[in-house]
Fold:
Amino acid sequence: MSLADIEFSDLLLLPDGTAKLKDGAGSPLRDLPDDCRGDVENLSNLLLHAVLEKKHSTLRYTHMNVRYRVAGIKDLDGRQAWFLRRQPETVPPLTAHGLPPYLLRWLISPEQRQGLILYSGAQSAGKTTIASSYVADRLTRYGGHAVTFENPAELPLSGPWGNDESKGYCFQLEIQSEAELPHCIEQAHRYASPDIIYIGEIRTKYAALESLRVALGSSRQIVVATIHGLNVITALDRLLTWAREVDGENACQNLSNALLAVIHVQISDIADGQRAITSPEHMLLPFKEHCLGVRQKLREGKINMLGDDMRALKNRIAAGGEDSI
Structure:
């Protein structure tokens, strides 16, 4: 038995030289099976060498045929520990997740061809997985090309997607810090006008500002990004707070003009003990007249008033079906 043969979400290499496994947020640590201890015997040294070579504390790494996102820390005594988040070997189909059918159909509709789509959620909620699935699905369905800016790159998006008639292609790029984003995105506009720009995660003012600015740059381009947040409102508030640090009140105007959707996701238990990425709440803002009131609230920075609008959306769908979105 090797690490590739067992189920786990995280591998922790502790300062005392032992290793633990974890099965997702909220689950207890468990011991590594005896058969797998040899797999991690020299892994700490290999990771230290990789970090020194890349000169970055967060990186992607493949060990014993398992892909990881790696982060390292030192404790109070200067002892090294490593956190390895296991990554899927392939990008799951968008339909493999637990999104409501009407939401799936709305997201993949050809009408959604411009604006910013945010995938929000808590840590380990599946944001990166479902965002990557969405990018791959649209490239497969409609062709064109995408450019990603990730730190580090996680799921294997790079390369061709789709059939010969509508083949798409993803150019997956890795950046060392989000301070590089303005220059990288400026360059991206010279890459034959990408149909999709994917910003791996918004976690600084640079990424917040650029995600809004680039989403305003074309009427034929979708910008996809992930952001931490306990719900739609906290995610949008976080985005706006960061963007305001650089752009002041212009950030509200940009958010109002650019936002297409916020899809809040979490990992939920479904039938037969299976787990899937679901969306307990979402805000959909097609560029239509009935969304002008919501856009006015965004323009005025009234993020905390959007709860009523999300409830109204659910009621409209329940009463009038998908055509009411």
In short: The chain has two domains: 3-86, 94-324. The mean pLDDT is 90.
